[in-house]
Write a structure and sequence with these properties.
- Helix 1 crosses helix 2.
- Strands 2-1-3-4 form a 4-stranded antiparallel sheet, with helices on one face.
- The protein is an alpha+beta fold.
- The model has no long low-confidence stretch (mean pLDDT 88).
- The two termini are 15 Å apart.
Length: 88
């Protein structure tokens, strides 16, 4: 499973992108389950981003979701953090 996160916005307005391929990871099952949970949760489209908040585009094997701070579920936040911290 390929998971890509692109983060834009914030005070500096810089873009950051990272990707994780779960295929050879020892935590593969955990990360894939987290991605499935995050994708399965509702993210209301009518929730507008806040000024200087981050905007995330999360792609998981071709499925795309656009999320905004502070409107993230715990699973979405955990997935985003894992990919941005570990991805290259």
């Amino acid at each position: 499973m390929l998971i890509t996160v692109t983060r834009t916005g914030g005070l500096a307005g810089r873009e950051r992108q990272a990707a994780v391929d779960t295929e050879c990871r020892p935590d593969r099952a955990d990360l894939e389950l987290l991605a499935e949970r995050a994708l399965g949760e509702d993210w209301p489209a009518d929730r507008q981003p806040v000024a200087d908040g981050y905007r995330y585009v999360v792609q998981v094997d071709g499925k795309v979701m656009e999320l905004h701070e502070p409107h993230l579920t715990a699973n979405q936040r955990q997935l985003i953090s894992a990919v941005l911290e570990e991805g290259a």
